[in-house]
Specification:
This protein has 273 residues and is of the alpha/beta class. Helices cover 63% and strands 8% of the residues. It starts with a helix and ends with a helix.
């Protein structure tokens, strides 16, 4: 009995040892298998990434290049279209002649002056509402004209005075300038929103100078006017280059009808009417 008991115990002990050893071996195999599986999985992921990377970097660049070319082409087309439109507008501007009459151009303007300015309405170049003038008037007697122009409330005022004042001042350009400046200041005070342009005094023919020698100094007076306009920051319109012998009346001072549209065009051009 004792022998059997001892044998049983030995046998049980051996079984336990075997079981333990077997489990150890089994756990080792599982660990190894697990490690192998993880390693295989990592290796598979790495191989996949490597393959994709190789494909990405070795893939043809045609699609990218085509996209870039498309963008460039679109940008080029936009610039070309814009340039074409600008060219069309410039062409239209150069070919589009202003069909307005001088009366329409001067609708918001007034020409103040002496007998020379009167021709603008006398020959029907401008409307009566665009001209305020008087024959033989002088710079120091224009209060009535300024008041009349104030009622008209123009945006632009053209001044055309001087021949009578050249004779009256007889070379005293300082007095002439002082009187002209007073007129400009009065207009600015009474009609502050109006832009002012001063016309140069038109020259006269030799026979007029023979009758009034002071008129020979018109060019000197015009230089004074030019300087005055610069100092007072107002426009100066020198239309003396437009004057030709055929435009004069017999007295060599006043102008015939054909001159006035030419003069009106020059004023409109300078003032951008």
């Amino acid at each position: 009995m004792l022998y059997l008991t001892i044998k049983y115990l030995l046998t049980e002990t051996s079984c336990r040892k075997f079981s333990i050893n077997f489990m150890k071996k089994l756990n080792r195999k599982k660990k190894r298998l697990l490690i192998i599986c993880i390693a295989v999985l990592i290796l598979a992921v790495l191989i996949t990434l490597i393959i994709r990377g190789v494909r990405y970097f070795t893939a043809p660049g045609a699609d990218t290049e085509q996209g870039i070319e498309y963008i460039k082409a679109a940008e080029s087309e936009d610039i070309s279209t814009i340039e074409q439109k600008i060219a069309q507008l410039e062409s239209a501007d150069s070919n589009d002649e202003d069909s307005r009459s001088n009366k329409e151009k001067f609708a918001s303007s007034v020409v103040m002056g002496d007998a020379v300015a009167e021709g603008l309405t006398e020959y029907d170049v401008l409307n009566a509402s665009s001209v305020v003038s008087k024959n033989g008037v002088h710079l120091d007697e224009l209060d009535d004209q300024v008041a009349q122009v104030k009622e008209l409330d123009p945006q632009i005022i053209f001044l055309s005075y001087g021949r009578s004042d050249v004779i009256e001042t007889d070379g005293d350009t300082d007095q002439f300038r002082s009187e002209y400046e007073d007129l400009v200041r009065e207009i600015r005070e009474e009609i502050p929103n109006a832009h002012i342009f001063v016309n140069a005094i038109f020259p006269v023919l030799d026979q007029a100078v023979e009758d009034e020698p002071a008129l020979e100094m018109i060019q000197d007076y015009n230089e004074v006017l030019r300087t005055m306009c610069t100092d007072m920051q107002i426009g100066f319109i020198d239309s003396t280059d437009l004057v030709q012998t055929q435009y004069y009346e017999e007295d060599g001072i006043h102008f015939i009808a054909e001159f006035y549209p030419v003069w009106a065009d020059r004023m409109a051009e300078v003032a951008a009417l």
